Amino acid sequence: MNISEQDSPQANHSIADIDTISVSERSHISDITFYDSANVITRIDKDQINGFPYKFIEKNRLRESEFRTVLIKHLKDGEEVAVRPFHDDWIVTIILIAAFIYASIKTFSRKFFPGVMRFLLFKGVGESESGETGELFHWQSTIINFISFSNIALFVFCIAFYYGALPVFLPGFISWLIALGMVILAITFRHIFCLITGRMSGEKEVFDEYIITLYQSYRYLALILFILVILLAYTDIFAPKTLILAGFISFAVLYAIRIIRLFLIFIKRNVSILYLILYLCALEFLPVAVIVKSVTGLF
Description:
Elements: H1 9-18, H2 54-73, H3 89-103, H4 105-108, H5 112-120, H6 139-162, H7 172-201, H8 204-234, H9 240-268, H10 273-295
C-alpha cells in the first residue's frame, strides 16, 4: 500500500506547526486559552491594559474635566445662606402650640380679643365686674396664662441668645425652661404682693381689679412678643436688634397703659393717693428701674 506524501509524518509535522495552541496559567474559567492574534478577546498582549476600556474611560474623564472647567468659568460667586440662630426644633414646637391655642381662643374664651380694645381704650375701669379675680383660676384662663408666660420666656431667651448671655453648658431648651420659671415666679410674686397690699390697706377690690389689669397686660404683651419671635425665627425682613427693640417698646407702652389704668382705678374708687404712691414706689417703679438698668447696656 502506497502512502501519499500528504500522509507522511513530515506532512503531519508541518500541519502541527501551523495549528498550534498555547497553554497559559490556570484560569478561573478554563485551563486552555486559544490564542488568536486577530481576535481582541483571545489575544494575549501585555499592552492590552492601555487599550479598551481604559482609554475610553480616560477620555470621558478628560471630557468631564474640560466641561467642568468651562462651566466654573461662567459661574458667579454665590451668596451665603443667612444663619438663623433662633430656628431650632423646640422653638418651632412652642410656636406651633401657641399658634394653635391662639387660634382656638374663640372656642373657649370670648373675652380675650374684645378685651384688647377695652384695655387700650381704658374702658371698664372701676366697674364691679372688673375686680372679679375668680376668672383667673378657670382652666381656660390658666391655659392662656401659661402660653402667655411661655411666649414671654421665649422672647427673653431670644434676647439672651442674641447677646450671648446664655450659659454655654446648658441646652437651649433648658435655658428656656429656666426663663419660663423666672417669668412665672415674678408674676406670681406680683400677684401675691397685690393681694397682701389690698388686704393690709383695706382696699381689696381696688387691688383685685389691678391684678386683672396685670394679667391682661401680660397676655397682650405675650401676643405681641409671639409675633416678634416668629419674625426673628423665620424672616429676614427686620434685623434681630430692631425686633428686640420693638419688644421693649411694646413692654414700655403696655406698662404705661397699666399704670394709667391704676391711676383711674384709684380715682374712680375714691382711694387715697398716698396708697398709690407707696405702692408705685415699692412694687412698680423699683422693679422696673432694676430691669431698665440691666437692659440699657444692651443698646
